[in-house]
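Researcher: Let's try something more involved. This one mixes different molecule types, so please make sure each is placed in the same coordinate frame as the others.
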Amino acid sequence: MTPRDARIDVQEIDSLRAELERRVHDLAPPRWNADPEDVQRSVARLVLTLVEFLRQLMERQAIRRMDAQTLSPEETERIGLALMRLEETIRDIGARFGLEPEDLNLDLGPLGRLI
Amino acid sequence: MSPAREEARAVLEQADASLLEVVDNLLNKGVVLSGDVMVGLAGVDLIYLRLSLLLCAADRVLEERRG
Amino acid sequence: MSHYVYAVLTEPPRGDAGAGLDAEPLRFVPVAGVLAAVGDMAARPAVSPATLRAHDAVVRRLAAVVDAILPVRFGTLLDGERALADALAARAPRLRAALALVAGREQMTLRVFGEPGPVAPAEPPPGELGPGTRYLEGRLRRAHRDAAVPELGPLRPWLAPLVRAEAAQRHDAAPLLASVYHLVDRGTAPAYLEAVAAGAPALAPVRASATGPWPPYAFAAEQLG
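Model: All components are placed in one shared frame. Result:
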């Protein structure tokens, strides 16, 4: 192996390492605790995170059914609109509490990565 | 950072190519049977939210009930 | 005592699968029409090279003495028979389908390195579709793009005769373009590695590096819905 090949291999291994570091999530149950200084914001964050989690579950299921063509065109349109509006609503309510979409990430461990 | 994640990071920093493959399989893949959130108050853990039971599509549940 | 779960099986092992990662005896618990391979453990094992390799070794020993195996993620500790039953019963149909897919097969992992190819322009959906439908179609197209690895195209003719199923994931970790997991019949790993080597010139400048065989970790993944 020439020195140039060895450098490329190290770079490749490092890029795999970097990717896995990004994806390794918490292996113990994630925790939520109310912040006594800002209970309202903490509660809003928990509630919106759980609703967003459910919304993503539903969106994933809807996409699967649409792909498998087990939804009628009317059902597809209704579900798509509902998911769109739910996403907007979650964003709007979050904004009122100073929450960005990235804040609604309770880091649900392995489940989180499924989404 | 939680202790478990710190452990995983430490493993990754030192991992050779073969261990990286093991980490990818064991920590990234495989059947997920638990997915729980610990909810607490004033620093005291109080409730497990067992989210893993949500991973069941309605049509499969209905199939099982009919079948 | 809690149950540390290693894998889901269809039948008891036909030979000795040895002990668990903590030298604990392996037990096989029938639940929801499948068999859970578990070890009794008080606490989740620490994440270390030793425990990770030991867990992988247990799964490999099990894979060697059964036809179909679904590896369970590392660190899965369930508190009691009831928790195990709940977790498995909820997923039983999908687990049985996954077990049928992986029977007699194992996994090869392909890491694809290089510069990303040109992104195929997204086809706009026909104008007469409603906004809700366009929204879902957009999400579907994005999901397909995340799993598509067009850069692997030149290598596929060599691999196609051997590949029974594929799971792919694009990355943003240059030069790592994507990870592609291939399900192949047991015993065909040498042929797979030869195929990757034979197709390498056609693939260049993109590089593909294969490892395996592994138990089918990537084909045990939960598909929501």
